[in-house]
Amino acid sequence: MRIFITGVAGFLGSNLADYYIKKNYKVFGCDNLVGGELSNLNKKIVFYRANCENFASMLKIIKNVDVVCHAAAYAHEGLSVFSPSLITKNIIAGSSSVFSAAIQNKVKRIVFCSSMARYGNIKPPFKESDMPKPVDPYGVAKLAAEEILKILCNIHNVEYNIAVPHNIIGPKQNFKDPFRNVLGIMTNRMLQNKSPIIYGDGTQTRSFSDIDDCISCLDQLIVNKKIKSKVVNIGPDEEINLISINELFRKISNILKFNKEPIYYPDRPAEIKNSHCSSDLARRILNYKTKYTLDESIERAVDYIKKKGAKPFVYNYKVEIKNKHTPITWKKKIF
Questions:
Q1: Which domain covers residue 244, as residue numbers?
Q2: Strand pairing partners for 277?
Q3: Which of 105, 169, 217, 306 is close enough to 301 for a disulfide, judged by CB 3.0 to 4.6 Å?
Q4: Are 77 and 160 in the same domain?
Q5: At residue 211, what are phi and psi to the nearest 5 degrees?
Q6: Rounded to whole angstroms, how far apart are CA atoms 105 and 115?
Q7: What does the alpha-carbon distance between residue 153 and residue 161 come to, in Å, rounded to a whole number?
Q8: Does one domain contain both 9 and 110?
Q9: What is the distance of C-alpha 72 from the center of its chain?
Q10: What pLDDT is recorded for position 238?
């Protein structure tokens, strides 16, 4: 099989590429390297430096492949409230460009990596049958891209699946981005001997997915011919995998033997208090199961960052709206 992965130098894309290279697939991919790293790329990947928003580029490079997995995204849910033009253009225009190029070049299947942000502030655990109610531009954009994909694939007779991952963590994750990835930000600051920053009171809960567990599900959505036209949550739903941000801080502190307390800042606007999903469908059709416990996944992610060493935070994304609601950590580049 020949597979094309957008965002192939990023966290999810590079790990997925490694998985398929081990299976002797021919892997192609693109990345604009805003959030991805060349060091993440396996030498066997046929790599193109390109932006998904550029349709002409996508049309040129997405050729002679069987499946396209669209993993590229400015995955910045919180930032989207303050940079809606940047984020929605990337998600909606970028996704539409990739879908159009893939269909024009006669791919057999498109797999889109969506986000739990599609569900918004409804009561968890989120189920695929729930009516999505996104509360930020990022979630709206992801849901819009899903609907665009369904329409295009139904009209042009192309198979599709939609994966809905949940807070993926693990090796190769970007820990220099000050706008997203709470585990990476906390760990990077602690390695710099700086107190991590927590928005709100830290009691908000999240469920974290190990990258390997996520890829095992994506693999089925990509290669299993019997599974098509599905929207599937990917993420642990066992109660033991739910964790507050305060608890996450303590676990990272224990691993790094860090003895300072966190600094608390006001809540970020539109941030969901409690977010986790139901994985019943994934278990039923993808044979989903967690390979790692939450503690093991956290330790794997922290160990990767520790080995890489502390890095300065990189402000690659422009904050479009600066007012009293904008987190001061972003306005003053406190990280």
A1: 182-206+239-275+291-331
A2: 126
A3: 169
A4: yes
A5: -55, -40
A6: 26
A7: 10
A8: yes
A9: 8
A10: 82
The tally of CA atoms less than 13 A away on the side-chain side of residue 239 is 0
**Prediction pTM value:** 0.97
The per-residue pLDDT for range 169-210, each reduced to its tens digit, is 999 999 999 999 999 999 999 999 999 999 999 999 999 999
Q: Please state whether beta strands 159-165 and 205-207 pair in parallel, antiparallel, or not at all (unpaired).
A: unpaired
Q: Is 159 exposed, middle or buried (0-12, 13-18, 19+ CB in 10 A)?
A: middle
Tell me the pLDDT of the chain averaged across its residues: 96
Q: In whole angstroms, what is the distance from residue 115 CA to residue 135 CA? A: 13
234 and 279 Cβ atoms separated by less than 8 Å: yes
Bridge partners of residue 230, in order along the sequence: 161
103: tokens are 């269909």
250 and 229 share one domain: no
Are 127 and 220 part of one and the same domain? yes
pLDDT of residue 145: 98
% of the chain with per-residue pLDDT over 70:
100
Angle, helices 94-104 vs 137-156, to 10°: value is: 10
The rounded distance, in Å, linking the Cα atoms of 230 and 173 is 27
Closest CA to 27 of 52, 7, 4, 60: 4
Residue 282's Cβ-side half-sphere holds a number of Cα atoms within 13 Å equal to 28
User: Is 264 part of a structural domain of the chain?
Assistant: yes
Task: Tell whether the model's pLDDT for residue 107 goes beyond 80.
Answer: yes
DSSP state of 133: B
pLDDT in tens, 25-78: 999 999 999 999 999 999 999 999 999 999 999 999 999 999 999 999 999 999
**Does one domain contain both 194 and 72?**
no
Over range 278-294, report the average pLDDT.
94
For the cut 80, the answer to whether the pLDDT of residue 240 exceeds it is no
Residues sharing a CB contact under 8 Å with residue 35, sequence separation 6 or more, in sequence order = 10, 74, 174, 177, 316
Those residues with Cβ within 8 angstroms of residue 126's Cβ, 6 or more apart along the chain or in another chain: 116, 119, 233, 275, 276, 277, 278
Query: How many Cβ atoms are within 10 Å of 196's Cβ, its own excluded?
Result: 23
Beta bridge partners of 209: 168
